[in-house]
Amino acid sequence: MAASKITFRSRKLTAATWWRGLQKTFSRQGDTLELLLPRGWPERRGAIHWRLREGAGAAPHGQVTELNQIPGVSNMTRVLVWTPPSDSLLTRVTLPTRSRARIQQALPYALEDQLVGEPDQLHFSYTILDDGSLAVAVTAKERMQAWVTHLTEAGLRPTGFCPALLALPLEAGTWSVAFHGNDIWVRTGVASGFTSATGGGAAPALLELCLREAQDKPSAPSGLTIIHPPASFVQNAWTHQLKIPMNIQKQDFWAGYHGSAPALNLLQGGFAPSRQIQEMLPGLRPAAVMLGIWLVGSLGFNTWEWWSLKNSHETLQSEMTRVFRSTFPDAQVVQNPALQMQRLLGDLQGKSGKAGRADALPLLGSIAPVVQAHPQIKLRGIQYGESRLTIDFTLPDFQVMDAIKSAFMAHGMQVEVVGANSTPSGIDGRLRLSHPGRTGT
What we know:
By secondary structure, the chain is of the alpha+beta class. It has 4 domains: about 30-165 and about 260-275, Nucleotidyltransferase, domain 5; about 170-255, Nucleotidyltransferase, domain 5 (2-Layer Sandwich), CATH 3.30.420.370; about 280-355, no CATH class; about 355-435, 2-Layer Sandwich (Gyrase A, domain 2), CATH 3.30.1360. About 35% of the residues lie in helices and about 25% in strands. It has helices at about 15-25, 100-110, 140-155, 205-215, 235-240, 255, 275-325, 335-350, 360-375, 400-410, and strands at about 30-35, 50-55, 60-65, 80-85, 90-95, 120-130, 135-140, 160-165, 175-180, 185-190, 190-195, 225, 245-250, 380-385, 390-395, 415-425, 425-435. The strands form 4 sheets. A 5-stranded mixed beta sheet has the order 3-2-1-4-8, with no helix packed on it. A 5-stranded mixed beta sheet has the order 11-10-9-12-13, with no helix packed on it. Strand 2 and strand 3 (about 60-65) form a beta hairpin. Helix 7 (about 275-325) packs parallel to helix 8 (about 335-350). The longest helix has about 50 residues, at about 275-325.
């Protein structure tokens, strides 16, 4: 692939330019870059197939030998990697637990007879099938680390690794067979399959053997889907050899895959992309931006409202101080003009000789009608102080006490129950009575 010369030209970042860039960034979140790695990569260089799916339209695709040669890839692009099928063992097992930690501990022992190599050098990935069994992929940790390292160094952060034969279409009751180089890939289930070398013009012996073994099982295939066979493929010879109906699909499986989630993701455990956060981030970015805009707007509005209320408070405080000083020019210190004016007005009213509502006699005159209307009240004492009357009394019961309290309130008085104790003779209580304002103004 010819390298393209790219030149950069500085320009002023206007609001319109920023908005267009933001829209472009959001639009790229739905893009998915699919990579099909060759066998032995990255130690052995080979053709890396790529396809950039950008919605429902045609997907740009091609082959490169280096990852940095793939055009049109941004940091916002999701990356799904199809790994060489021969690098992962696909098998199936049933375990009596659903604990993720216990499954990871039990898999090496449950698959011991099928493993080649030390269990601590192998990476186990699994998915739970509908029947409760586990579909398991076993891959060398060294191979997984090599894939992840080279992709990361190229600026790509995959959210999915999956053996490539699971990209083959899966139709109920059939197996899918695809030709890839000198190999044949066979998908037999949701997360199962195998690979085999091509058998020249005949069907591979391994495929014939697996079909015979599956004949007596409920999952036995009723046909084969042959995907994009080469020119050397002879359908009549295969049908005669395998004795099973075949359907030819001319479209390559690579073009037919529609970007759904892989059946079995190898990025689990220690290879999980930051515990799947990378996979969630693209979908969360719009919400995060909107939340940031809302927070900035809310902070700005609250700041403006606080500043406005602060100015109003200071204006009203200054106006009250001005009125207070104009009314009482001899006052030396003004701390709370409203409270100070209330007290000074009360003092002036008391010096004038004119009785106010909060004075003792007016308060006694206010409670007299209630006392006269309720002969059950036995007054034990009356005190006056701070423009309030405190009366001690004895009543037959609490119902009478509630009635008296309501009667005082009906006469426009504020009533505070200071205490009420039950005694053999009735209720000994104390009420504190005052007029609203207490200044007589």
